[in-house]
UniProtKB/TrEMBL annotation:
It comes from the Eukaryota. Pfam families: adh_short_C2 (PF13561). GO terms for molecular function: carbonyl reductase (NADPH) activity; L-xylulose reductase (NADPH) activity. InterPro entries: KR_dom (IPR057326), L-xylulose/Carbonyl_redctase (IPR051737), NAD(P)-bd_dom_sf (IPR036291), Sc_DH/Rdtase_CS (IPR020904), SDR_fam (IPR002347). GO terms for biological process: glucose metabolic process; lipid metabolic process; xylulose metabolic process. Residues 8-193 form the Ketoreductase domain. This is Ketoreductase domain-containing protein. PANTHER family: D-ERYTHRULOSE REDUCTASE, D-ERYTHRULOSE REDUCTASE-RELATED.
Amino acid sequence: MWDNLSNKVILVTGAGAGIGQALVQQLAKAGATVIAVARNEQQLQELVAFDKVHIKPLLLDVADWDNVHKVLSKQVPQLDGLVNNAGVAIIKPFEQLSESDFDTHFDVNIKAVFSVTQALLPKLRDGASIVNVSSIAASRSFAGHTAYSATKAAVDSLTKSLALELGPRRIRVNSVNPTVVLTRMGRDNWSEPSKSGPLLAHIPLNRFCEVHEVTDAIGYLLSDKSSFVNGHHINLEGGYSVS
């Protein structure tokens, strides 16, 4: 699968840490040219130190609509793939969520996906693949995830709409929808058994998702191995949805 991505050009947002960082590194190992988009310069420098040949850093706040269109239209080459990975999660009870919390969720988790994809449409080659990083929270409810879940449901809806609209150009659009992913932040946030236990009890495999399981799914969707997969949401949740 990964060797199928050598010599391709792929842009990844939210590249500085977690899933995005791991994906950029894996794509670079596979021989792809990766445009790594993040708003933290130090994180981008660390990625470049990992591979100066294949990783091209791009400092950009994807929540800034005007700058996204300006920068991406001028600084990005023709692309074979786009991964909309940037995201935020402010977990609070519904009654405690502020207007700022609401706006931050929607600005990053859905408006940025919309604006980045729109800005890059002229750069996407016919036959390219777009992968949106969504969440099982798009279709299942979790306490404290009200705003987050709403944005991920919007991402899933956008994924289907774009799969329809971009189909004539043979551009495929899909999403990956994991449950808790054991990034460094994920391990910190879900290490307490009293918190993780009730959720794990609903997952038949009795564990959370590893980072490589998300990047492998993204790699599949970016590759020609998934050439007839379009408009789908790949749930990475160990059977949670059937429990």
